[in-house]
């Protein structure tokens, strides 16, 4: 009786794999909706609330600051947390924060609410990585990573689509209500269906899996294999260089996505709704990046090889965007925005997903996920505030895109260092 349903599953997916991946993809897509809605609504909020670019940029930065600090703590503590509680409670807390945004009486209150949202969401990624490492089978892991990589485009489409729908009437609050509803529903489904039986020895499944979680200096095969593998200093240097490249990616990716609608409105005189709709091109381009990541990784196992190429493309695209805004050429600018976004989404997915899970036998995947995501959102927080301040200074958008191109160049440098280190790690692991 069970044979027919089994044939409809994706190749390599068990019933548990499907349940876990569905719940994680739904929850994290709604999480992106609940963090990108602020940037997507920034035009309507600026007009409706009368706040400056620097003020709104500081609100966005509050999320990134809290997220970065919380990610580091979450990565360290994830070894002891059951993702059933940490992932579900974080979704529910973020839902409440999004619901509170429209009722914030002023900038200070909104900063506090958005800071709390960042703290809540900082628990999600490490919990997601731990849940995948514990519950997703080896055969299903490559497809599961692709599914998780698609959450950013899914959440972006929802956030910018809702913002575009509400822009003509100035109803920016609707995006936050939608995010609150999606996050609340995801939390309810998570608590209802993320349930698994205990292993045969009677110990809780999460604790049994946690005991087998690999550390940075211990390989799965024991002390003899650890001695033959890459040293911990090489592995630590690889993680550090990869994290720095992820920080440059965060600055470039979120600097562009936060201010793209404002650029299109200021530089080309487009109405708010059309500016947001054109920005919707970016998530669809990012969705293609999730599948390109898998294809690339199948042919080239070194993650840093892909990120080096992507940073080269992203830096060139940021320079091209500067030219498109300066001419001005709307088609050239939008094409350049798409190039930046595609490249940086591929970098984000490669580092925070593929890198952490592909090398999970070398280090604690949840801990490293927390480290790289922390540095990524340090870059994001600097971008949201500093670029908003640059625009308010009256210098126009030229220094903004110059800063974005410089961040891409820095990422290219760090990624090249990572590539050299990853080659050493790969050779050491192969012995």
Question: What do you see in this structure?
Answer:
The protein has 431 residues and is mainly α. It has a single domain, classed as MFS general substrate transporter like domains (Growth Hormone, Chain: A, Up-down Bundle). The protein contains 19 helices and no strands. The chain has helices at 3-7, 15-40, 42-49, 53-77, 83-100, 107-121, 124-135, 141-149, 151-166, 173-193, 205-211, 223-228, 232-268, 272-279, 281-299, 303-326, 330-358, 365-392, 398-430. Helix 4 packs parallel to helix 6 (107-121), helix 7 (124-135) packs antiparallel against helix 18 (365-392) and helix 16 runs antiparallel to helix 19 (398-430). The longest helix has 37 residues, at 232-268. The radius of gyration is 21 Å and the shape is globular. 55% of the residues are buried. The model is unreliable at 1-7 and 198-227 (pLDDT under 50).
Topology readout:
Elements: H1 3-7, H2 15-40, H3 42-49, H4 53-77, H5 83-100, H6 107-121, H7 124-135, H8 141-149, H9 151-166, H10 173-193, H11 205-211, H12 223-228, H13 232-268, H14 272-279, H15 281-299, H16 303-326, H17 330-358, H18 365-392, H19 398-430
